[in-house]
DNA sequence: CGCTGGAGCCAG
DNA sequence: CATCGCTGGCTCCAGCG
């Protein structure tokens, strides 16, 4: 590093953690395929666009969503002629690849340039990974990264090739292969120092929009623009003659779709002796608006309506989860489009490629700022400096013993010089996309299975290799090509690849390859060889084997071992029988198979039937951070917001749920009120409670009410709540015929200007979520009225039943006041009806668990009465219709059918009497939960009909009348009769 | 025996 | 200032009829 750069570095006092906090907002890259489906952070361009529209256009824009939404774009999609081959079975054989390896896909105009990957793959027995790993066989400090950089900087042609290649990749990945407008045509741009958005993002933007990028300022003459956020005094003088602009020039030009005059963004103004920054109109690079933003963000506590959004925006784990879900959804979409893809059958031999970025977050974050030296300094990605968790650390840090998930404070004890870098979620997405793009373009694999943002499993049938010879060699070649391409495309991110005949072996090979290497073991054909290869790995390298399983195995089979046993150790010491007895049938069997490098049935599902494997079965929100509530009402509001989030999602997915689960974390009795980690949950007990709807629903009112009621059942004092999760289970597709029909508020009209078109009620709610939020705020800003969500509207204005229900639900709120007895009086218990006994036992169990804070083996029993098969013995004689029914769901179904069939004429009085008697029985038997559930089912059903029948419908009115006047009061009285005895506490 | 709800585990 | 401890899927187990 030269003196100037050093001086600049030292003069820059901003903490690294400030870098890149807000840069995701402005990127043009945010709008591609999977990112948009989730809660991508707000998008200023979009907001800008919206606010530029007049009311008329805005409403029209929203209305356009009444039509079916355009299909999401795929990250695996590209538009070239051979598109179809993407997922096809082995259309392009390796032989054609050998010709293509030279990157002539990149740029046909310069085929003469030797590609580095040719060097790497040309040697037949070259086991080394040139040029990436050759000079740096193992760990970081040896890696001669500079050589590679030099390689590019010396050869401008190559540099441009690479940019062209990247441009093409980006276009494919981000813009359906179409070029972006050439905003920076004829510009040759150099970036100086640290910038916001960071260097990597600016680079991408510049080349995407037609500019040329200079990595080094050696030949200053050719550079037309220099981008910098800040300049040292010395640089200021040095750059006097250049067009030095702020990064905003780039972002604003792109937003404006044309190159804006550089003078407006000049960093050095001629008449400014003090070198004061010229702050440009929209947003200064660093300054007050940012600070304000941060402050307001920081003050968001869990009561703030935007808390969820702001928390999610910064949570690595949330990002990981949503990325994964998105990738899975995308896979299914693609899979369905290409019906010719076949799962792998049991008898087929395959080569599995397990591909994974090396310390992904750390690498990407490090590359975004030239001050971070990835291969020399110990680096980690984390938010804070003490009890902040390390999301990812580079291999230098690992050599000190630093591990992912460690708190920064403890890591610093191992490695005092550890440098913390900020997250850069947007760039992670971009680089991930590039990986998947490259994998797809390779046209080598039969399937590309997403594992996560930084990891994929690729499959190739052995039978589809060219000839049958040298499978090993072909695999090695393809791994090396991929590694090289990813390295180039991502500006220096390395992937490691493990390749083997099974999922397990590929995974272990990957472990062997890391960091920055490849390991192909397709040549280990007989069992002994494979065994020998596997023997050295520690047990926890096996998939699905974590802390707990290792612990159990150690305890039972290696009581004296001081370290984690290896696969070889376990294989020598265990039998199928011993494993299943220690770990259970399935787990034991699975591990037993793993010991011979075989995949078990469950693991193979991803190969056999990927669609089934990736299908979404549940959806949930977990928040176990910053949860601090004072009152149950605040919690109710929070639950509402969580449910809103979830229902909005399943609504977008067109799904409904028959079962919801609430899971809470409650501060352990002995745990301090505030744990070591700021706003952390500390040590907690967890409790969960699930309940079912008679008919699957996506209705927020029902779901939220149910969850709130579950929360009360769990009887957690609001102040002790430290975490809350809501899950919608057993998701199913909503029947499509519904909801297309006319809804009762179809004539909803926007107030005000009569020239403004009528807003179609469905339209707003059919918009993609990311758009919805901005449109909503835009509407609010203009005092335009947004129609309520169809489902919610029903609950509010159409169905008094619902309203009643809400009140009914709330009526239980204040009734759990008394303390539970610390021990149960046996006599007292014996004299109670069994149902009640169970209920009290359950409550007692909660208290006991809470008191003891026992972590394991303290299962709460008799939890759900809602779904235990109904004891119909006494009701059977009287109610013929229920005779054959044993399961609650059948009962709900019957009631649903009953309502459906009588919705126009109303229920028959005799039937109602019969039904009344049935309810009486339930009440008498204290099965109020069941009765409650039935009422809920009926309410739900009636609301459903309310959507399609006129409010005059006599039959429906009768039904509602019955529900309101007879059924609910009956349940209410039974409920108030019951609650004092149940003795919850709040 | 098969089913269910709750808890636990694991991965990234 | 801290700091952002998610989420989906499988398995195990006890209890029920």
UniProtKB/TrEMBL annotation:
It is found in: Nucleus. This is DNA repair protein REV1. Residues 11-25, 114-124 have a biased composition (Polar residues). SUPFAM superfamilies: BRCT domain, DNA/RNA polymerases, Lesion bypass DNA polymerase (Y-family), little finger domain. Keywords: DNA damage, DNA repair, DNA synthesis, DNA-binding, Magnesium, Metal-binding, Nucleotidyltransferase, Nucleus, Transferase. GO terms for molecular function: damaged DNA binding; deoxycytidyl transferase activity; DNA-directed DNA polymerase activity; metal ion binding. Residues 352-546 form the UmuC domain. Deoxycytidyl transferase involved in DNA repair. Transfers a dCMP residue from dCTP to the 3'-end of a DNA primer in a template-dependent reaction. May assist in the first step in the bypass of abasic lesions by the insertion of a nucleotide opposite the lesion. Required for normal induction of mutations by physical and chemical agents. Involved in mitochondrial DNA mutagenesis. Its cofactor is Mg(2+). Residues 179-267 form the BRCT domain. Residues 1-25, 75-94, 114-134 are annotated as: Disordered. The keyword 4Fe-4S does not apply.
């Amino acid at each position: 590093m030269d003196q100037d750069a050093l001086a600049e570095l030292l003069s820059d006092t901003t903490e690294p953690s400030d870098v890149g906090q807000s840069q995701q907002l402005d990127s043009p890259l945010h709008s591609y395929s999977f990112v948009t489906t989730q809660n991508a952070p707000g998008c200023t361009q979009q907001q800008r666009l919206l606010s530029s529209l007049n009311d008329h256009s805005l409403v029209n824009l929203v209305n356009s969503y009444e039509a079916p939404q355009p299909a999401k774009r795929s990250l695996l999609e590209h538009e070239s002629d051979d598109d179809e081959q993407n997922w096809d079975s082995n259309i392009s054989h390796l032989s054609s690849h050998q010709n293509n390896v030279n990157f002539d896909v990149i740029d046909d105009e310069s085929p003469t340039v030797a590609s580095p990957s040719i060097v790497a793959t040309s040697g037949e027995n070259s086991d080394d990974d040139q040029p990436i790993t050759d000079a740096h066989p193992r760990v970081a400090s040896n890696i001669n990264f500079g050589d590679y950089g030099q390689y590019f900087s010396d050869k401008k042609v190559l540099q441009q090739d690479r940019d062209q290649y990247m441009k093409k990749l980006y276009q494919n990945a981000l813009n359906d292969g179409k070029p972006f407008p050439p905003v920076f045509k004829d510009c040759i741009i150099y970036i100086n120092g640290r910038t916001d958005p960071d260097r990597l993002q600016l680079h991408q933007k510049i080349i995407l929009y037609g500019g040329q990028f200079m990595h080094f300022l050696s030949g200053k003459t050719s550079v037309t623009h220099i981008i910098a956020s800040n300049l040292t005094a010395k640089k200021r003088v040095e750059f006097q003659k250049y067009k030095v602009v702020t990064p905003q020039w780039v972002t604003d030009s792109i937003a404006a779709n044309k190159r804006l005059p550089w003078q407006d963004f000049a960093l050095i103004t001629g008449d400014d002796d003090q070198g004061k920054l010229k702050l440009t109109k929209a947003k200064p690079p660093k300054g007050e608006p940012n600070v304000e933003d941060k402050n307001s963000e920081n003050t968001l506590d869990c009561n703030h309506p935007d808390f969820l959004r702001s928390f999610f925006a910064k949570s690595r784990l949330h990002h990981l989860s949503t990325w994964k879900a998105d990738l899975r959804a995308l896979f299914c979409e693609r899979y369905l489009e290409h019906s010719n893809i076949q799962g792998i059958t049991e008898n087929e031999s395959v080569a599995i490629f397990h591909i994974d970025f090396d310390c992904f977050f750390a690498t990407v974050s490090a590359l975004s700022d030239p001050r971070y030296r990835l291969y020399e300094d110990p680096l980690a990605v984390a938010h804070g400096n003490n009890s902040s968790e390390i999301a990812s650390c580079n291999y230098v840090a690992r050599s000190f013993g630093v591990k992912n998930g460690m708190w920064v404070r403890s890591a610093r004890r191992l490695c005092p010089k550890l440098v913390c870098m900020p997250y850069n979620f947007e760039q992670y997405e971009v680089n991930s996309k590039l990986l998947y793009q490259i994998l797809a373009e390779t046209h080598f694999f039969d399937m590309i299975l997403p594992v996560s943002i930084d990891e994929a499993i690729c499959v190739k049938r052995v039978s589809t290799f060219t000839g049958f010879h040298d499978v090993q060699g072909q695999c090695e070649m393809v791994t090396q090509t991929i590694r090289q391409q990813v390295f180039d495309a991502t500006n220096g991110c390395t992937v490691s690849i493990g390749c083997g005949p099974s999922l397990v072996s590929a995974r272990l090979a990957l472990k062997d390859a890391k960091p920055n290497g490849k390991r192909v073991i397709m040549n280990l054909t007989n069992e002994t060889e494979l065994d020998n290869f596997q023997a050295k790995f520690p047990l926890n390298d096996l998939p699905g084997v974590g802390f707990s399983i290792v612990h159990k195995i150690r305890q039972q089979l290696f009581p004296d071992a001081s370290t984690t046993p290896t696969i070889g150790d376990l294989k020598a010491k265990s039998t199928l029988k011993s494993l299943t007895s220690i770990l259970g049938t399935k787990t034991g069997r699975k591990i037993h198979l793993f010991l011979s490098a075989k995949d078990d049935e469950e693991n193979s599902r991803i190969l056999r039937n990927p669609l089934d494997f990736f299908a979404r079965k549940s959806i949930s929100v977990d928040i176990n951070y910053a949860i601090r509530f004072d009152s149950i009402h605040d919690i109710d509001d929070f639950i509402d917001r969580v449910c809103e989030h979830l229902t909005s999602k399943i609504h977008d997915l067109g799904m409904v749920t028959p079962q919801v689960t609430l899971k809470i974390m409650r501060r352990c009795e002995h745990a301090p009120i505030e744990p070591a980690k700021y706003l952390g949950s500390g040590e907690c007990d967890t409790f969960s409670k699930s309940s079912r709807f008679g008919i699957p629903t996506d209705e927020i009112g029902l779901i939220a009410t149910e969850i709130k009621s579950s929360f009360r059942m769990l009887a957690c004092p609001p102040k002790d709540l430290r975490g809350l999760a809501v899950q919608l289970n057993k998701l199913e597709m909503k029947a499509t015929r519904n909801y297309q029909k006319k809804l009762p508020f179809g004539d909803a009209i926007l107030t005000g200007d009569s020239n403004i078109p009528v807003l179609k009620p469905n339209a707003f709610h059919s918009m993609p979520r990311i758009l919805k939020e901005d449109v909503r705020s835009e509407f609010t800003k203009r005092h335009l009225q947004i129609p309520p969500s169809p489902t919610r509207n029903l609950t509010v204005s159409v169905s008094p039943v619902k309203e009643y229900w809400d009140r009914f639900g709330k009526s239980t709120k204040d009734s759990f006041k008394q303390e539970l007895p610390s021990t149960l009086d046996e006599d007292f218990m014996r004299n109670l009806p069994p149902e009640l006994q169970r209920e009290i036992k359950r409550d007692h169990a909660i208290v006991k668990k809470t008191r003891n804070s026992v972590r394991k083996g303290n299962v709460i029993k008799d939890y759900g009465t809602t779904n235990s098969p109904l004891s119909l013995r006494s009701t059977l004689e009287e109610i013929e219709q229920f005779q054959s029914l044993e399961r609650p769901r059948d009962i709900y179904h019957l009631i649903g059918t009953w309502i459906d069939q009588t919705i126009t004429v109303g229920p028959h009085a005799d039937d109602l009497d019969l039904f009344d008697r049935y309810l009486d029985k339930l009440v008498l038997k204290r099965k109020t939960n069941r009765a409650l559930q039935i009422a809920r089912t009926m309410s739900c059903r009636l609301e459903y009909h309310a959507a399609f029948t006129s409010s005059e419908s006599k039959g429906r009115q009768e039904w509602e009348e019955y529900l309101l006047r007879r059924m609910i009061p009956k349940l209410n009285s039974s409920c108030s009769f019951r609650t004092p005895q149940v003795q919850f506490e709040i």
